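Risk register update: the risk of archive-format incompatibility is retired. Evidence:
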Amino acid sequence: MENLRGILFMILAMAGFALEDLFIKLLSSHLPVSQILITLGFSGAAVFLIIALLTHEPILHRSLLTKPVIIRTLCELFAALFFVSALALTPLSSVVSILMATPLMVTIGAAVFFREKVGWRRWGAVMIGFCGVLLILRPGFDSFMPASLLAVIATVFIAVRDLVTRTMRFEISTTTVSMYAFFACGISGFIAMPFYSVMVIPSSTEIMYLISATFIGVIGYYAIVLATRNGDVSVISPFRYSRLVFAMILAIIILSERPDFLTLSGAVIIVLSGVYTFIRENKLSSL
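Archived output:
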């Protein structure tokens, strides 16, 4: 029963993140990326700050100055910067498809940095998965969009973040870590300012999009926490790929995107290879 609750919370979180991505995509056609990052980052940090105060969780902790936490926060900063930039410049469906390669990059990182044993089957799945990424990117072809590489860079930072999280001590509450993650997102907006147009006064509709994106993002974070607390990670992790399904539906219905055959094929390959690595890792850990 716990695993079922974990799966439901994970699907809820992925639906929320897909909806948040949609709002960011809609906002990017009117607001500069820097303004979106600053607004969503600091408003999300404020929400988590209020939650921390209400639950009497420490806002400042000596563990915040440890190397893993600092690296994780920097990864959050650059991941947000490159991911939102990719959303603004390329189709939502392709950005989220590339993002699904994160577990494959985590597998590589675990083998390189943690000396985790990775057999030929998982290495094969990783290589096949990256072939799916190449199908989406299509370097050397007329349809290649250089801005898609921003999504790849964002995925690398997210993978490093996940790897570093494994080494973190659990002295810091999830609320505090999430607050600083959103704060880092806000800081990334200032870094992006020289590369985008000046800030503008948002319309009432855009303000509603910003508010909705903030609260949906916060709910998504909490849903992931509930998912990991209610179910086994090996069981619920494959359901992270439901984000791609939600993103595809929203991109087609709301944004009128029409992913071509190669993009859809690449997305399917990435998902299948990722699910296989999860299953294989689970089997090995149970031996």
